[in-house]
């Protein structure tokens, strides 16, 4: 049984933010850890 998730922080990139492949990979990896329940 999965608990429901509450969003407590929502971030938005600035207009001049550049999403590079390295930044995208790091973001996906971090999100995976958060979704798995790691602090």
Distance between the termini: 20 Å
Main β-sheet description: none
Class per helix and strand makeup: mainly alpha
- How much helix is in the residues? 40-55%
Mean pLDDT: 87
Number of helices: 1
Q: Report the portion of residues in β strands.
A: under 5%
Low-confidence stretches: none
Strand segment tally: 0
Overall geometric form: flat
Query: Cα-atom Rg, whole angstroms?
Result: 13 Å
Following the backbone from N to C, one meets helices and strands in this order, namely: H
Could you explain the architecture of this structure?
The chain is mainly α. It is built from 1 helix and no strands. It is flat and about 40 Å long. The mean pLDDT is about 85.
Which labels suit this protein?
about 40 residues, mainly alpha, 1 helix, about 0% strand
Give a brief description.
With 39 residues, the protein is an all-alpha fold. It has one helix spanning 21-36. The protein is built from one helix and no strands.
Topology overview:
Blueprint: H1 21-36
């Amino acid at each position: 049984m999965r608990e429901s998730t509450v969003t407590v922080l929502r971030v938005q990139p600035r207009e001049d933010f550049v999403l590079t492949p390295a930044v995208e990979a790091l973001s996906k990896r971090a999100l995976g850890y958060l979704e798995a329940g790691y602090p």
